[in-house]
Design a protein that fits this description.
There is one protein chain. The chain has 241 residues and is mainly alpha-helical. 74% of the residues lie in helices and 0% in strands. It is built from 7 helices and no strands.
């Protein structure tokens, strides 16, 4: 800045827009702020859920398959709401309650498969909670911001038309303020879209690990042996107790 140049405060901007804007402008801004806050909350909590499940998967590799029985392996899995422990317990419950008037008509391997698939679907559903909201925010917030812009420009043109002064100083300011809404809408949408895609990719990788574990568990429950990654059957192990 030159020595003789005096800083002039910008009379237009977000604060001026909120001070002079009507209920519609303030309402659109409030909606965008709420959408952004909820989006960041979902992204943070889902990231924590993914970290928790990844930590549980490492614990399974370390403490589960070295146990002498599935019951002992399940007891080795510590922590509240352990996803893999829940899958094991559901599988054990399916084998223990297979005999009955109705379930007797279903082969054991099909009964166990149904139980483990339900456990997988429940886990996948828990991981996916909130992602639909991120997708909605990513697709709608630019249009919400655009609505605020259109409304602001309409009010600006109406004011200019009634005053009869169409100079650049009268046009540029109100129109510039209105365009702020579009910028805010994009600022809300971009993180939501990026977070949605990132969380979706993370869920896919984690669910692959869950399916591998469930496949091994199914083989153990049905035949007493664990199927390795190559598709062959490992040495016979003790059946579930």
């Amino acid at each position: 800045m030159e020595p003789n140049q005096v800083a002039v405060e910008n009379p237009y901007g977000l604060s001026a827009m909120l001070q002079t804007g009507g209920p519609v402008t303030k309402g659109v801004f409030a909606i965008l702020v709420i959408m952004s806050a909820i989006s960041w909350y979902i992204m943070f909590t889902k990231w924590l859920d993914q970290r928790k499940l990844a930590s549980q998967q490492k614990e399974v590799q370390k403490n589960f398959w070295q146990a002498s029985s599935l019951r002992e392996g399940a007891n080795n899995l510590k922590g509240k709401d352990h996803a893999f422990k829940m899958i094991v317990e559901n599988g054990l419950r399916a084998t223990e309650h297979h005999d009955g008037r109705l379930t007797d008509q279903i082969p054991l391997h099909e009964w166990v498969t149904i139980s483990l698939q339900r456990s997988q679907e429940q886990l996948n559903s828990n991981l996916s909670k909130g992602l639909s909201f991120l997708a909605t925010v990513g697709s709608t917030s630019p249009f919400v911001g655009l609505f605020g812009t259109v409304w602001g420009i309409l009010n600006a043109l109406t004011t200019i038309g009634t005053s009869g002064d169409a100079s650049i100083s009268k046009v540029a300011g109100p129109v510039g303020e209105a365009l702020i809404m579009t910028a805010i809408g994009l600022a809300v949408a971009v993180p939501a879209v990026l977070g949605y895609n990132w969380l979706l990719g993370g869920n896919k990788k984690l669910m692959e690990q869950v399916r591998y574990f469930t496949s091994d568990l199914h083989a153990f429950l049905v035949s007493g042996a664990r199927v390795n990654a190559g598709g062959s059957t490992a040495a016979a192990a003790p059946r579930a107790k």
